[in-house]
Amino acid sequence: MKVELYDVHKRFGTVRANDGISLVIEAGTIHGLLGENGAGKTTLMKILSGYQSLDTGRILLDGQPVKFASPAEAIRAGIGMLHQDPLDVPPLTVLDNFVLGRETGLMQRRAAARRELAELCQRFGFDLDPEALTSSLTIGERQQLELVRLLSQGVRVIILDEPTTGISAPQKVLLFDTLRRLAAEGLSVIFVSHKLDEVEALCSRATVLRQGKVSGAVAAPFSGDQLVTLMFGQCLSRSQRPDVPLGQVALRLADVAARTYRLRVEHLNLAVREGEIIGLAGLEGSGQQILMQLCAGILKATSGHVFIGGQDMTHQPYQRFMEMGVGFVPAARLEEGMIPGLTLREHAALTSERGGFFISWPASEDRAQKMIRAFNIIGRSETRVEELSGGNQQRALLAMLPDRMRLLMLEHPTRGLDVESSRWVWSKLLQRREQGTAILFTSTDLDELVENSDRIVVFSGGKMAAPVDASAISCEELGYLIGGRRQ
Amino acid sequence: MKRSSLASLAWGLAPFVLTLITSSLILLFAGADPLEALGQILGGAFESTRKLADVIVALVPLLLCAAGMLITFAAGLWNIGVEGQMIAGALATTWVALGVKAPVYVMLPLTIIAGMAGGILWGALIGLLRSYGKVNEIFAGLGLNFCATALTNFLIFGPWKPPDGATMSGTDPFPQEAWMPIIGNTRASMIPLAIAIIAIIAVYFLLRDSYWGLKLKAIGQNAQAAQRMGINTRGNLILALAACGALAGLAGSVQTTAVYHRLIPSISGGYGYLSQLVVLLSGLRAEWVPLVVFFFSVIQVGSPRLELRMQLDSSLGGVLQSSVVLFFLLVRGLRQKLERKEG
Amino acid sequence: MANTLIIETIRSVLAASSPLVFAALGETLTERAGVVNLSLDGTILLSAMAGFVVALLSGSLMLGFAAAMVVGAAVALIIAYASIALKQNQAAVGFVLTLLCADLSSFLGQPFVRVPGPSVPHWPIPGLADIPLIGPILFNGDALVYTSYAAIIVIWWWIAKTQPGLKLRSIGERPEAAHSRGVPVNRLRYIYTAVGGALVGLGGAAYSLSVKLGWSHRHTAGMGWIALAIVIFGGWSPFRVAFGAYLFGFLKSLGSILQPVYPNVPTQIFQAAPFALMIVALLLVSGDFTERVLDYLPPKLRPIIASLLRGSPPAALGKPFEPQ
Fold first, then answer.
1. Is 3.40.50.300 the CATH number for A249-482?
2. Domain C2-309 part of CATH 1.10.150
3. What is the pLDDT of residue C178?
4. What pLDDT digit, counting tens, does each position of C302-321 carry?
5. 0.90 exceeded by the pTM?
6. Chain A: nearest CA to C161, how far in angstroms?
7. What number is the ipTM of this complex?
8. Contact residues, C window 88-117, toward B, CB-based 8 Å cutoff
9. How far is CA B107 from CA A272, B247, B258, in A?
10. How far is it, in rounded angstroms, from Cα B153 to Cα B140?
């Protein structure tokens, strides 16, 4: 089925998630959709699969205009989406999940469904036990289940959102084979990803989104380099910075391993000195966040040691890390960094290091005013933090940090900020650097990484490469490293 | 400007108006004169000094428990277990009152301390179940309420029964040294009232002006971010429950030493549950609590007259109280829904 | 004859527990859909009163039961509406309704206190009641008891074996997934809350028309809270919930049987037991204890014990669902 999107707009408050996107996907093709986080791919696909409504724009299927009010309507029209975290019901069995949602009246017609499931599994080489609990399946298997379910509902367009995160290599091979076969049968496959080598290997066409707009579209054969340029844009040359003498080792990781639900990292080794800035680069979910959480004490290592200022902090609680002068500025500002419902003045009170039982409101007001002035926050002391714009929230977060810190970690410090704010944030960070603070930050902006880091560490698939000297690398080279290409 | 404050007033009065309407309908359905009945309830509290004293008696546990619940609500907890904490305080006080011999100026402070201790224990228990056992505080609180009631009955009909046999009247009266001084021959007592007033004022300032209060609010709004900002979420939640328990335990204690001068089976008298209605109706704001408590106490005291004068069950008072809160919640929801549609 | 005594005891426990079975099963349905109806204690009181009064005044038992079910459903719908459409806290609204319905029942029921009224007639099933042993136990009751047996089986079958039952499970566990498959989450939540509430109402009327005849102040004595506890203890699964209800009934009667024999054992233990059991059940379910216990068992036993012990709450219980 041919899918056409014309001039799709979608806004969330002041953020333009989709800013006039047009896209054509031919039937029987695998079409890649690329872009970094926040580029707009997920929003666009949610619109296409009925989970979100668009503000303006047109969608055509096989030339017919369509409008969906719900995911179920989209499926009836023939479009199904396989989410990154498959939308299944974990306590139910595989067969239950397969059957749920079908219009079979009162009885489940399990026998017929069982046969259908077995047929589909056999066709694609999947091995799913109908009576197994869905919660016991691996992500790859849950994907397979969702895939056969969508196929059994008769979808002609399948959207896969970052399908290869967290599945095993054999499962990936199986998935790609399946997708090729489906395309050969006339289905359209939209492969949303930021893994360049996979897109290169699988897709006959690729569209790249950047900041809500289409940055470019290429047809096979295309190279990863083209994709990199489209995704990350052009690079500026690195500006000069005053050299700062490096101090003692502030942070050291010795053969650290850790894991989350989706990712396992091992053999993390890093030594960072006071006054150094380390940029952590890589595609989303490659391990940078885990490293930072390890260094902040939010995540506990399963093996290895974490040293802060020479002290072994491996099993210490988060409070102790804070006492040792470690700070963590999260990317999810309102969800993890600040308290919605509380004002700037109240945040100033909470983060001041005063003792005593009663808050001195004049002192807190004073501190809040100082914060507002020094960090150019557009807001008043009685403004609640959720009412501030993203840029001002970031400024507030930075303003609340203690004066002297040993180690400061920032997740995407300039995400969502305009150029002026970004520049301003970095000027503040460089000031701290001169005070001797060691800084680690993650970013998807190649410019930011090359411009501000002393060394850059590239993450890929949970593996950490040796740090490279930022002054000796260009944006393009960095892009290749991130895309998983070897020099 | 004028229009919106008029609208706000209308929204604010709506729950009361709706309550009057529905209660009148209920009264008509029951074959009674709405005006007369409502007049009895609302006026009953003012007809004699004795009645006014009864209002004071009702004010005390409501103020104390409401003050305590403001603390737990600030931290994002629903402490249904207040009733059990009251009982625990009463039990601890009875234990001291019946078992310890000392002059009055020792006994009374001792009973107060015992009451708070009992409540703290019962409240902290819920906190521990929640923090370490991950048991929801609503069900833990409910469960412990019933355990407290069962314990009370056990003690009254068992180890603490009066020498001449156990009855529903409870234990023997406390020795005189454990009686709170009462006003005249009413049941009102100044010391508990003073304590209650101090408590609500203290909680107001605690939540508004103290670091602990601010930390609790932070936890209540976003526990994860609060944790990241260095606030010990677990410890503070247990502390909040203990603080509420202290105040509730005090309320229970005072019921034994000032009102009944003994332990009776239903010592908490439903005040724990009623105080939750108070806090809900006050919109979780300490400055509104005294007014709402007064309103509820007036109804509490006036309701028995229905039985006397009109052969109606005094539960109508409870119906009024709960209806106001229900309509308050519904009206608020409706108002927010309309505002969402506009926005 | 000790034999007859035992048979009679079991029979009476089954009969006396049927109101609790109805109430707990009703709440199980509601909670499986993701909604907590905290107002049970008040609803049961109000529906018990309404059922009795309507049956008394109209002379028709069926009308009484119908009235009680309507009351139960109505109260439940208030909670559903307030939490789904008006986005108010389910626990808060449920709690206020508990007090409101309790007081309303006392007020409106006052003229009928200790008034003798109709009762559900005894109705042994011919033939089945004569089967040795199980006959007199199971088939020597009234229509209510038989309905309660049927309810347990029907509700189990509905949840476990039918397509709508699958939808029910999905909206309580992961409404986003259900929504993506076209299941109308909020509409179904309204329906199941109402049906659950109707069953609770049935339980209330069963009490005042069959178990403890008539009406008095606070007639049903905390049954609503016990029902809530039993739903948790029973792991939201119909057979286990029914087992919990019968267990409670048994403990209660045990209290009155054993009292003359062991006067020193406090009866209050039986009062507190369901709630202590509930807290223990919650500890097992919410903490890691079940996992640790299972680790110690030999592998062959694990699946059996696991299915007996496990019973986590529906994951989306109490949380509102937004389609977008």
1. yes
2. no
3. 92
4. 666 666 666 677 888 888 88
5. no
6. 7
7. 0.89
8. 88, 91-93, 95-97, 99-100, 102-111
9. 64, 19, 13
10. 20
